[in-house]
Amino acid sequence: MLTPLLFAIETPDQVRESLNRLEAGLGKGQAVPIPAQLRRNLSLTENSADPVLECDEILTSLHIYTRTIRNPFSDPLTTKRGLSIVGRYAFGSPDVPLNTQRIAARCLNNIIVLAQPMRQVFVDEGYPQKVIARLKNGDPEDELACGNLLLFSSVQTTLDLNPFFESGDLAEPINDNLLRHSKSDVPLSNDPAQPAVASLKLMSTLAVSYEAQAHRFIPSFQPVFDLLDKVRIPSPPMQLPVSLLVGCLASVPFHDKSRKGVTFLKSNVDKLIDVVDASLKSYAGKAGEMNLLTPMVALLRVSQAADLESETIKQLKERLLPSEEDRKEVLGKGKTLPHRLLHFGVNSTSPELRDPTLSLLFELSNKDSREFIRNVGFGNAVGYLTTKGINVSQEDMAASGADANNSRPINPITGQRMDMEQDVDLPEMTEEEKEREAERLFVLFERLRATGVVNVENPAARAASMPSVEEVNSSDDEKK
């Protein structure tokens, strides 16, 4: 634990003097005593005589100073020299006490966060390899600092982490750290400075940036589910820690079909569905609608990973597909989760959101267009099927007109049970209105047939092609 600060660094001149003092202490096994003039400049008391404690004090003060730097691109701390001095205390010398190394690592993290050019300097100086080596020790303090250092140095730099993935030095310690956190009885909080948060951020970022290496994080999918299972869903739901945990599930390819026998705990799947449910209530049709993307993708990946006959698929179908009770209304118009999920998938203005939502329902329909139409109604299904280039025949539409469970007739367009449809009292159409409606339907059928997606026969064209029958009255027969 750090002692109370004996001084504060507030100006660039004090930073320069502090760096000079730190540089003088490098390689001596311990920090050198602070010269009297520097002691006066830093307002140090004469009682702070321990050189190691004084070094820790300076590094701690520099760490605090990084939070208030007004011009990070011209400050002496955010230069190659400043980074190098602090970096050598953090990772460059085994003679530096461990506590001092950790203080320096936190200060180093703030430097590369403040001044983006310093990230490339950090890479050029060879620090990422040293960070990865320390990440292996499994200490939460090192996990937090090292995770953040790797996270920021991997963005907009020339750093190539592929060799570290291939050697097993990178993914394995991250997986080990997350497994350790998942065994804790204490749920994650919304504090961004938790070691587990650093590992989760690092994993999700690397899984996206290094897609070919993302499979190396598959061992963490169950620990991430376990961590999610322990936390309370906040309102709105997509904030720490839920947003980060769900983001990891959406990033890691645990749905890879080359993996056999993927199983999910019922409580894990229920929790993820609850997150989707809460997200639909909070974001659907609103400004924050894109918050729904990661939970939808995560749930889609669960449906893709589970075997068709598994309990997980049965669980998903039970909670997400319309029930007989849901079919008392036009599908997508009610207030239950299946209604709201379908309404969102059809009506979202963003194709990035529509596709995973409807793909989820298509997966739960065994990827069968006929079953998909039966589950959601032709009116809700046709747009998705068209974009995927899936043909729909008249037989598919006809087969969708009966509930697969009890054979009750349903409206194939809306998915509603026909016995629950309300009679619409409309005035009788005039002959002119009938002709206009017939012409409109003729054009619509011709356009639909021309797309090649839906194979239907225009009833008007069919009637026109049939041989006509002329009625002859009985009086004419008698004359003949």
UniProtKB/TrEMBL annotation:
<protein>
    <submittedName>
        <fullName>Uncharacterized protein</fullName>
    </submittedName>
</protein>
<feature type="region of interest" description="Disordered">
    <location>
        <begin position="458"/>
        <end position="480"/>
    </location>
</feature>
<dbReference type="GO" id="GO:0005737">
    <property type="term" value="C:cytoplasm"/>
</dbReference>
<dbReference type="GO" id="GO:0001965">
    <property type="term" value="F:G-protein alpha-subunit binding"/>
</dbReference>
<keyword id="KW-0344">Guanine-nucleotide releasing factor</keyword>
<dbReference type="InterPro" id="IPR019318">
    <property type="entry name" value="Gua_nucleotide_exch_fac_Ric8"/>
</dbReference>
<dbReference type="GO" id="GO:0007186">
    <property type="term" value="P:G protein-coupled receptor signaling pathway"/>
</dbReference>
<keyword id="KW-0143">Chaperone</keyword>
<dbReference type="Pfam" id="PF10165">
    <property type="entry name" value="Ric8"/>
</dbReference>
<comment type="similarity">
    <text>Belongs to the synembryn family.</text>
</comment>
<dbReference type="GO" id="GO:0005085">
    <property type="term" value="F:guanyl-nucleotide exchange factor activity"/>
</dbReference>
